[in-house]
Amino acid sequence: DQQVKQNSPSLSVQEGRISILNCDYTNSMFDYFLWYKKYPAEGPTFLISISSIKDKNEDGRFTVFLNKSAKHLSLHIVPSQPGDSAVYFCAASSPSRARFGAGTRLTVKP
Amino acid sequence: EADIYQTPRYLVIGTGKKITLECSQTMGHDKMYWYQQDPGMELHLIHYSYGVNSTEKGDLSSESTVSRIRTEHFPLTLESARPSHTSQYLCASSESRQSQETQYFGPGTRLLVL
């Protein structure tokens, strides 16, 4: 059962524009949501997170929005830079474990 | 900066061979994980450990086994490799088991079983 879904396998945006990556989850027991970024030949690294009691968390160019009623979260990157090109994984976490989506490959074109 | 290491990075091996994928972390983290990921698919948790001498199976059934004799070391073993084991294996650790605890990942091992 795929409890965390990233329905867009890839996204291409122009440098300077906004990148929006989406993630849907099915289990209302998740209480924390995280985004990880992965470059080729490296493991995923933590990017930003949000608690289920919040609806927005911002860190520099990165903002994560959470819509609990829709069981949906999104990652906004503004402005996008070529160095942001990577695979982004959404993760939903509960005290027992975290579940990851399949990732979205973001390409930022100069 | 996270310090978690995996060896080998790439492995091509024949069917029936026994293999051990190594994972070590120098952060003193209690919790460690093994994930399996096929291209374009989500990361599947196959094993985890809450500490020394503690190991549990994850969400995805796996023929592999793990051990946790030392805090820093969490090796994964396949007694008899098969082509269906071809995948990427990612090791991770976290300081605790709380929901907000981020996981630190190693670079992964790409396994190809012929």
Q: How would you describe this protein?
A:
Chain A has no helices and 11 strands. Chain A has 110 residues and is an all-beta fold. In chain A, a hairpin with a 2-residue loop joins strand 6 (56-59) and strand 7 (62-67). In chain B, the strands form 2 sheets. In chain B, strands 2, 4, 5, 6, 9, 10 and 11 form a 7-stranded mixed beta sheet that branches. The model of chain B has no long low-confidence stretch (mean pLDDT 92). In chain B, 40% of the residues are buried. At the A-B interface, strand 4, strand 5 and strand 10 of A face strand 10 of B.
What is the fold's blueprint, element by element?
The complex is a heterodimer of chains A (110) and B (114).
Chain A: E1 4-5, E2 10-14, E3 19-25, E4 32-38, E5 45-51, E6 56-59, E7 62-67, E8 72-77, E9 86-93, E10 98-100, E11 104-109
Parallel strand pairs in A: 2-11
Antiparallel strand pairs in A: 1-3, 3-8, 4-5, 4-9, 6-7, 7-8, 9-10, 9-11
Chain B: E1 4-7, E2 10-13, E3 19-25, E4 31-37, E5 44-51, E6 54-57, E7 65-66, E8 76-78, E9 87-94, E10 104-105, E11 109-113
Parallel strand pairs in B: 2-11
Antiparallel strand pairs in B: 1-3, 3-8, 4-5, 4-9, 5-6, 7-8, 9-10, 9-11
